[in-house]
Every structure is written in C-alpha cells, then in structure tokens.
C-alpha cells in the first residue's frame, strides 16, 4: 500500500478524535515514511512494517480513550473507553456481546431504580406529613430522608461499580492488544528472541 492510501485509511479510522490529536498522530506516521525514504525503503515496505492502518487507528483510539479516562473520570470519557474497546474487540464481539449487554442492562436498570427511589423519597418527605402518613408527620419526614439517603448510597456504590467496569474494559482492551500484537506484526514464537 502506498503512503497516501495508508495515511487516508489511518485518518478515516481516527475520526471522532480531536483534530489536534489526529494531526499529531498522522505527523508521526508521515515521519516514519520520510525516514524510511531517506534510508532507501519503499512506501510499500514501510506500510507493510507498520501494519493495518485501520487496526492501528482502533488501537490509538482505545489508548486515547484510556488516557482521557485516567485524567478525567467522567461519563463521556468512560463512554469513549467503552466505544473504543468495542471497536478494538470487533473480533471478539460475538463472544463479548452476550456478557457485556446483560451487565450494562442490569447496571442501567439499577441506576434507574436508584433515581426512582430518590424521587419517591422526596415525594414521601414533602407530601407524607400532609397525607396522613402512618405514624405521623415525623415518621413521614424520616422515611423520606431514609429513602433519599439509601438512594444516594446506592448511587455511590453504583458509581464505584461503574468505575470498576470501565477499568475492566480498559484492562481487557490492553490485554487484548498485547496478545494479538505479535500476530499483527507477523511474529511467531520462533521469530521472537
């Protein structure tokens, strides 16, 4: 594959990343081609040595997502790690999908339940004293506060579990890459010194 085709496919795979990051990555690979040309190597040799640009782009997107997650643990950075991981693990998607989807479904269901309990606690806190709550107004206030506190505690626990899930996806993505990297580069056990 020629240099222009390699760079075009790399850019296409990096869509969604910031333009500055894309330009920095592309500049690095352009430098590989320039250095190789100075050494007398052909563009085809360099592109063969570098590997599949689409695959490299998925790996680079995963690494960028992981760096984003490690520097700023936000829902958007978690989502970028998960999407990059799924993009990298397209080979394993048939195996992972039956595991990942139920876990995400249960997690989402628990988050919805937690929000619902919090809202119900607020309703009991506000409306309970005026609606003839069993045990009186004080019991209604305390019950409402208890429900809201339980929901906040459950939300905190779900936040911790969510962080663990994202870290597990990050770990698996890096492990996945380490295991298949020799195959991508064309190495076998006999070739590695």
Report on this model:
This protein has 193 residues and is mostly helical. The chain has a domain at 73-185. Helices cover 81% and strands 0% of the residues. It is rod-shaped. It starts with a helix and ends in an 8-residue tail after the last helix. The model is unreliable at 186-193 (pLDDT under 50). Keywords: Membrane, Transmembrane, Transmembrane helix. This is DUF1700 domain-containing protein. The chain crosses the membrane at residues 77-100, 106-126, 138-166. Pfam families: HAAS. It comes from Novosphingobium flavum.
Notable features of this structure?
193 residues; DUF1700 domain-containing protein; disordered C terminus; mainly alpha; transmembrane
Q: Number of DSSP helices?
A: 7
Which regions have little confidence, pLDDT < 50, spanning 5+ residues?
186-193
Q: What does the largest sheet look like?
A: none
Q: What's the mean pLDDT score? A: 80
Overall form: rod-shaped
Order of helices and strands: HHHHHHH
**Helix percentage:** over 70%
Strand tally is 0
From the alpha carbons, calculate the radius of gyration and give it in angstroms: 25 Å
């Amino acid at each position: 594959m020629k240099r222009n085709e390699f760079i075009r496919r790399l850019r296409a795979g990096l869509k969604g990343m910031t333009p500055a990051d894309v330009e920095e990555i592309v500049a690095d690979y352009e430098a590989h081609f320039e250095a190789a040309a100075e050494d007398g190597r052909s563009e085809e040799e360099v592109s063969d040595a570098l590997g599949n640009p689409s695959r490299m782009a998925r790996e680079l997107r995963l690494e960028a997502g992981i760096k984003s997650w490690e520097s700023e643990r936000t829902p958007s950075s978690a989502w970028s790690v998960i999407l990059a991981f799924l993009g990298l693990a397209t080979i394993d998607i048939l195996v992972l999908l039956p595991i990942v989807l139920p876990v995400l479904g249960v997690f989402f269901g628990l988050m919805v339940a937690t929000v619902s309990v919090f809202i119900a606690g607020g309703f009991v806190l506000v409306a309970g004293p005026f609606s003839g709550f069993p045990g009186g107004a004080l019991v209604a206030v305390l019950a409402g506060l208890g429900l809201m506190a339980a929901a906040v505690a459950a939300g905190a626990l779900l936040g911790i579990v969510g962080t663990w899930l994202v870290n597990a996806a990050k770990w698996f993505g890096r492990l996945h890459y380490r295991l298949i990297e020799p195959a991508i580069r064309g190495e076998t056990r006999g070739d590695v010194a």
